Amino acid sequence: MPEGDSVYKAAAKLRAALDGQVLTRTDFRVPAFATLDLSGQTVTSVVPRGKHLLIRVAPAADAADSAAAGTGSAVEPSAGLTIHSHLKMEGVWQIYGAGERWRKPSYLARGVLSTASKTAVGFELGLLEVVPTASEDSIVGHLGPDLLGPDWDADLALANLLSDPERPVALALLDQRNLAGLGNVFANELSFLRGVRPHTPIGEIADPKRLVALGYKAIMVNKDRPIRNLTGLPRGKPRYWVHGRRGEACLRCGTRIESDQLGTGPTDTRYMWWCPSCQK
Ligand SMILES: [Zn+2]
């Protein structure tokens, strides 16, 4: 799963290429929006919300009449629309100059947005849909405070996390309704950095406020780094304390890192890693 810092970076890249520009060509390679044509629309903002990417477009004032004629698609481009994507496992947006060859095969492309000088291609997106901007809440309204958003509220995030004190700390951190932006990497690494196992009920950990503060700090320092790094070690050394390091030596104490699945069902099962000595 993507982490909020990846989505934040993807939004920054898309914003640099598209914001304020008129779309000259769009291609939505998903059945519900295959006939939708947003060419002539202006990109008005690109916003990350947790792990969701929102590209907002609006008709140019003088193009509104022709746009209102209708397209037969699920949405009409006569009012503000939001192109909503979620990267899920493998999704990525890439930016190309005019005529530049794509670095991924065309059949993996789900969405293509071109301006006069740039083309943004969304490959292997877990989700791509277009909704009226006025109903964005139906997509992101359930999200808790966004670690990288203007709505960040540490006290509310803490209250949300503690509302279910029995929940394992890692699963509580992953639940986007509590706070938005953390994925499995951060859930594991934050558990290590606080010295608690990912399975520990969140209600039992000492000073959960520090956990929230640490999560904020960790994602903030990584939001502009090209490569995420939680250990602060130089290139070539492990970037993560425990995530993905089963059987390897703990960077602090040398104990072998353990891993297991954690969760209660098919949609709530995650791999967890921890150091049995450093994390109690
Ligand atoms: Zn250790």
Question: How would the blueprint of this fold be written?
Answer:
Layout: H1 4-18, E1 25-28, E2 41-49, E3 52-59, H2 64-67, E4 81-86, E5 92-97, E6 109-114, E7 118-123, E8 127-132, H3 137-140, H4 154-162, H5 169-174, H6 184-193, H7 208-222, E9 258-262, E10 270-274
Antiparallel strand pairs: 1-6, 2-3, 3-4, 4-8, 5-7, 6-7, 9-10
Helix pairs in contact: 4-7, 6-7
Characteristic terms for this protein:
280 residues; alpha+beta; N-terminal domain of MutM-like DNA repair proteins; Helicase, Ruva Protein, domain 3; four-stranded antiparallel β-sheet; 10 strands; 22% helix; binds zinc ion
Descriptive report:
With 280 residues, this protein is α+β, with helices and mostly antiparallel strands. The protein has two domains: 137 residues, Alpha-Beta Barrel (N-terminal domain of MutM-like DNA repair proteins), CATH 3.20.190.10; 121 residues, Helicase, Ruva Protein, domain 3, CATH 1.10.8.50. It is built from seven helices and ten strands. A four-stranded antiparallel β-sheet has the order 1-6-7-5, covered by helices on one side. Strand 6 and strand 7 form a beta hairpin. Helix 4 packs across helix 7 and helix 6 packs across helix 7. About 3% of the residues have low confidence. It binds zinc ion. Zinc ion (ZN) binds next to loops.
